[in-house]
């Protein structure tokens, strides 16, 4: 149903939504008292709501619409694919053209150590696949005891039981009895919130060595893998100090632990490199992918593995795992068209050398605002830490409410979607954003800060 096909008013649409739709990660009662924002169309970096308001999508949907909205090429190839072969599976000794082409393309655009992909339908499914795959990998080498997976507090790896267990979000664990056994969470490299008096470099090393301490305590012969996001997205865009990732890699290599990079947000150009691990100069054994793989035009994900991992899996008989929509032809066709656009238009290179630095300069300058304790950004993913006291990086008293959410509401009023995690404002616009659109985004962010400061200082 679109507004073009209905004469319903926004209020009527909201009432239907309230009556029949349970939204993800939402306090339903609170939402229904207010009414959901109804988005009716999008083009480039802009959204339009049912009242005709034009909004800059500073979050690329859910960090996924990397190439922006409205690319007709994708619509055309998907329509053609749906006419030719809308669905066939990749089980039972069968494959199809989009799965073949996408797997080859992924081997080309991922770092050189990667050669093969297992297709999924989402980031959560990719991470569930990884739990089973790494345990199978070690069992196939007569090391079934290597089964525990180490992840991080405040990490996000999805909402399925496996994904939410790998994630370190305590409010998620509190619902449904998570995490499942065999998953251990260590400290996150969140210097602003937890670094105290240590320098970021010292803190980065300390956080990485939490992994070393944990492996040594539990015994390397019990640990299958370590998983983390290169930049922790939902957990407030935690950009680790430069010392962190190389140390993590050293620890995993020395102790024969698989290194898994969750590239669901960072992959496909977000950091100005094709993958976040490349930005930090590390070579993981496995990558979880989704979101930017198709820029959200259709749902698809994948698990990318090195030839070494692939060989073990390939020689271990049946891997008893798969999804009806693993490699779905129309979704794979959308991903192929998306990756071709990223490549041919040199969108990733543009993030690294043009629009990324252009936006970073203005975004980091927001750090001068009286309510901003830290502004940070890599490529086109960034955050503002809001605080009543820049020196101490303090939080607001509980009575003030969640200032991030107050600011997020002002942001909407100024025609900009930002996301809030507690008192952190988050930005991750489409990678195709123009210089003028960055200027407009920054102007709206400034107004947001001014209005929020006037309300809570
Ligand atoms: N991993 C990361 C790093 C994510 O940010 C997300 C979603 O935001 C996921 C996994 C889960 O992906 P999905 O929502 O497609 O299941």
UniProtKB/TrEMBL annotation:
Keywords: Aminotransferase, Pyridoxal phosphate, Transferase
CDD domains: OAT_like
Cofactor(s) recorded in Swiss-Prot or TrEMBL: pyridoxal 5'-phosphate
One Pfam family hit: Aminotran_3
Transmembrane segments: none
UniProt keyword Isomerase, yes or no: no
SUPFAM superfamilies xref list: PLP-dependent transferases
GO molecular function, one term: transaminase activity
Highest taxon above the source species: Bacteria
Record InterPro entries: Aminotrans_3, Aminotrans_3_PPA_site, PyrdxlP-dep_Trfase, PyrdxlP-dep_Trfase_major, PyrdxlP-dep_Trfase_small
The keyword Protein biosynthesis appears for this protein: no
Entry similarity comment: Belongs to the class-III pyridoxal-phosphate-dependent aminotransferase family.
PANTHER family: AMINOTRANSFERASE, AMINOTRANSFERASE CLASS-III
Record protein name field: Aspartate aminotransferase family protein
């Amino acid at each position: 149903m679109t507004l073009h096909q209905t004469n319903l008013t926004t209020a009527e649409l909201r009432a239907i939504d309230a009556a029949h739709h349970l939204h993800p990660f939402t306090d339903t009662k609170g939402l229904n008292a207010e009414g959901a924002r109804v988005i009716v169309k999008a083009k480039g970096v802009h959204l339009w709501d049912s009242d005709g308001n034009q909004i800059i999508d500073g979050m690329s949907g859910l960090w996924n619409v990397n190439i922006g909205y409205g690319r007709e090429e994708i619509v055309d190839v998907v329509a053609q694919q749906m006419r030719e072969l809308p669905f066939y599976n990749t089980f039972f000794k069968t494959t199809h053209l989009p799965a073949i082409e996408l797997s080859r393309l992924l081997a080309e655009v991922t770092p050189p150590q990667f050669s093969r992909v297992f297709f999924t339908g989402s980031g959560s499914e990719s991470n569930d696949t990884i739990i089973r795959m790494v345990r199978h990998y070690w069992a196939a080498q007569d090391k079934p005891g290597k089964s525990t997976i180490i992840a991080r507090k405040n990490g996000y790896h999805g909402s399925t039981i496996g994904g939410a267990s790998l994630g370190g979000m305590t409010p998620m664990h509190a619902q449904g009895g998570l995490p499942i056994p065999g998953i251990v969470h260590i400290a996150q490299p969140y210097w602003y919130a937890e670094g105290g008096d240590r320098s970021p470099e010292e803190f980065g090393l300390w956080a990485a060595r939490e992994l070393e301490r944990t492996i040594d305590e539990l015994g390397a012969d019990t640990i299958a893998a370590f998983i983390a996001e290169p930049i922790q997205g939902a957990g407030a865009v935690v950009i680790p100090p430069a010392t962190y990732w190389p140390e993590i890699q050293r620890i995993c290599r020395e102790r024969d632990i698989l290194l898994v990079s969750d590239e669901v947000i960072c992959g496909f150009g977000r950091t100005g490199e094709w993958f976040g691990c490349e930005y930090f100069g590390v070579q993981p054994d496995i990558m979880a992918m989704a979101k930017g793989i198709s820029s959200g035009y259709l749902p698809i994900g994948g698990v990318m593995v090195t030839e070494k991992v692939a060989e073990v899996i390939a020689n271990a008989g049946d891997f008893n795992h798969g999804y009806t929509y693993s490699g779905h032809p129309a979704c794979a066709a959308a991903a192929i068209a998306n990756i071709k656009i990223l490549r041919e238009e040199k969108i990733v290179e543009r993030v690294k050398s043009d629009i990324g630095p252009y936006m970073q300069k203005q975004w980091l300058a927001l750090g001068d605002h009286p309510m901003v304790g830290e502004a940070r950004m890599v490529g086109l993913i960034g955050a503002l830490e809001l605080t009543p006291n820049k020196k101490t990086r303090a939080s607001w008293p509980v009575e003030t409410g969640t200032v991030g959410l107050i600011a997020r509401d002002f942001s909407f009023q100024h025609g900009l979607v930002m996301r809030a995690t507690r008192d952190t404002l988050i930005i991750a616009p489409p990678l195709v954003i123009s210089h003028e659109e960055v200027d407009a985004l920054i102007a709206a962010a400034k107004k947001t800060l001014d209005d929020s400061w006037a309300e809570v200082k």
